[in-house]
Write a structure and sequence with these properties.
With 205 residues, the chain is of the alpha/beta class. The protein has 7 helices and 7 strands. It is 33% helix and 30% strand. α1 packs parallel to α4 (74-87). The radius of gyration is 16 Å and the shape is globular.
């Protein structure tokens, strides 16, 4: 029988190793699509679910959002906390599993960026995100699309943890869906600029 590594331990080790090398697993700047989408909204309360090293949560806090960052990796949250302190912004950092965590009070925005889980786990995380939204609150999601394996570049190479517009739209069907589509994201490679393929969702309660 093939054993699977504990994902929490794997991410803890990955974030800790990057921090030790004064490096970063992910970009320090916010995801461009997330930032361009959220800029249209009036700041309120926000959650970055599966926040990793905190890039989107820190950006949200810096633009006036009262922000909570949630990730199951304590090492990732340690990095995020240090970065928010350096940026002089306040974020409520929570070490918790996105598939079980739910906001204690309804919020105006939930961001999920590149949270790649099995479909049942992703649906649970999305259900928690939907249940955490106040009336009029927005759910903003981006992740690697399944077609990225064959037609794009980079990203996980496991189809079972990748997104499709149909999957996200169905999981968020209790909301009013504003947009749900595949989008191209230019990526610089050694062979020049190539397009990665993401799935994006914008919906509101």
């Amino acid at each position: 029988m093939t054993s699977h590594p504990d994902p929490r331990a794997m991410w803890d080790a990955r974030y800790a190793a990057a921090a030790l090398a004064d490096d970063s697993v992910w970009s320090i700047s916010p995801n461009e699509w997330v930032a361009s989408t959220v800029r249209e909204y009036t700041p309120g309360t926000a959650v970055d679910l599966g926040c990793g090293e905190g890039r989107n949560a820190i950006w949200l806090a810096s633009t006036g959002w009262t922000t909570t960052g949630v990730d199951f990796s304590a090492a990732g949250i340690d990095v995020a906390r240090a970065r928010s302190h350096h940026a002089q912004v306040d974020v409520d950092w929570q070490v918790a599993d996105a598939t079980t965590w739910r906001a204690p009070k309804l919020v105006d925005l939930v961001v999920i960026a590149y949270l790649h889980l099995s479909e049942p786990e992703l649906r649970r995380a999305l259900a928690n995100a939907v249940a955490s939204l106040a009336p009029g609150g927005h759910l903003v999601v981006i992740g690697h699309d399944r077609t990225n394996i064959t037609d794009g570049v980079g990203g996980p190479q496991r189809e079972d943890i990748l997104y499709t517009p149909e999957l996200l739209a169905d999981a968020a069907s209790a909301l009013t869906i504003e947009s749900c589509a595949r989008v191209l994201r230019p990526v610089e490679t050694i062979d020049g600029t190539k397009n990665a393929i993401d799935t994006t969702l914008v919906a509101h309660a």
